[in-house]
């Protein structure tokens, strides 16, 4: 897959600082990261940034997306409106692993107000390093689209 090291990232004002740090770290690890915004901590609407990230992943321009906002619920609800998106909210590494293993999540949601920066980094690394298990899980994923 040509876009294996490409990540789309976005969120809202509550996730801005973590997003900025993740971009630095991911870039240093050799990922190509595109920041879809926001570009400051000024109050904004998460859907304005979640939709472009989801669309970029849905169109296979990027292998994965990462969305950060206060609870991550808004960005997950928004991105999961896209038919080819399986966005999973993870607040610890175990959940990050399971959304990849069992759900083949292609977008990670991180609740910035409920995890530390260090935890957000660990969650991201586990998400990116975990493979989808397939098998019985693929049968379930095939039933998701409307």
Fold topology:
Elements: E1 6-11, H1 16-28, E2 32-35, H2 47-58, E3 64-69, H3 73-79, E4 87-89, H4 93-101, E5 107-111, H5 117-129, H6 136-141
Parallel strand pairs: 1-2, 1-3, 3-5, 4-5
CATH architecture annotation: 3-Layer(aba) Sandwich
Largest sheet: 5 strands, parallel
What level of helicity do the residues show? 40-55%
Structural class estimated from helices and strands = alpha/beta
The backbone outline, from C-alpha atoms, is globular
Rg, Å, rounded: 14 Å
CATH first level:
Alpha Beta
Under CATH, the topology is which? Ribose 5-phosphate Isomerase B, Chain: A
Order of helices and strands: EHEHEHEHEHH
Q: How many helix segments?
A: 6
Could you give the order of strands across the largest sheet? 2-1-3-5-4
Tell me the CATH superfamily: Sugar-phosphate isomerase, RpiB/LacA/LacB
Return the average pLDDT rounded to an integer: 96
- As for the number of domains, it is 1
Total strands: the figure is 5
Q: What low-confidence regions span 5 or more consecutive residues with pLDDT below 50?
A: none
Strand content: 15-25%
| Terminal residue distance | 26 Å
